Amino acid sequence: MPSMRCVEVKAANQSLQMVEREIPTPTAGQVLIRVQACGVCHSDSFTMMGAFPGIAYPRVPGHEVVGVIDKVGERVPNWKPGQRVGVGWHGGHCGHCPSCRRGDFVTCQNAQIPGISYDGGYAEYMVAPFEALAAIPDELDAAEAAPLLCAGITTYNSLRNSGVRAGDTVAVLGIGGLGHLGVQFAAKMGCRTVAIARGADKEPLARELGAHLYLDSTTQDVSAELGKLGGARVILSTVTNSKAMSEVLGGLAVNGKMIVLGASSEPIEVSPFLLIGGRRGIQGWPSGTSSDSEDTLAFSALANVRPMIETMPLERAAEAYERMMSGAARFRMVITTSR
Questions:
Q1: How wide is the angle at C-alpha 115 spanned by C-alphas 109 and 151, nearest 5°?
Q2: What Å distances lie between residue 255 and 158, 186, 237, 268, CA to CA?
Q3: CB burial class (10 A; 0-12, 13-18, 19+) of residue 327?
């Protein structure tokens, strides 16, 4: 049987290892994807640490997958071998739970996630259900498209559903893997974009990405500075520090809201008076469906939004993961294959 290389974790809290496996065969409703690139996301740590319920090991991580359809199983409409496709965090839905019956597939009670529910993209091949597939525009190469399927869709989709309009003030808290895309999307959508990060050294990059104003949270009162602008219609929080989120909530405008994208186990602290007096709010946002991924990719191609990436070959996947976890990556690690 034909074989492939893949990088798996054999059990929770073990290291990644390269192994040889048979190339999987797509069953009904599935396609086989010849992987070209897979982004390395902080959420891959759920697989590595066993932090998500129900993970069966060994498991191949990876949910920012770009490749080419190699084979199509039975009862797969529209998709054909040779098409460029991507698979993001939304890796399939049941179609019958209360959320699915309302068309809200992202909050499906039985949602599938590549690299968690089934083997993901740290491999030369993977199978995925057809409802998880997103078409990749010709203008995007595989490596730069991959992070847009998680970091990209999360920032773009949350912003476009936030109610902001051109000219509104959007503050992006954090200039990292999510934030550097959030700044670009907000600016390209016509918003007055304020980048917030720690240290003056990040200002040149923030300006280059499209920020109209930069605030250094180590030397400036961010809430007061946002207040001088009339407050932020949206604060897009991409950091994983709940204290940092709490400290900027005072910069929200009347009817403004913070959208939380960065996950933290610590609580966000906010005065009820701040929320009540100005009808302010705090909202979380998960990524989006495969059609949302297509919208993200299309807008990125149209508006020239690109992730800043570092690439490593599949055999260095463990190194790429460690570099991401250490915070040294600028800003997204992408694993590439020779296929």
A1: 85
A2: 16, 18, 17, 19
A3: exposed
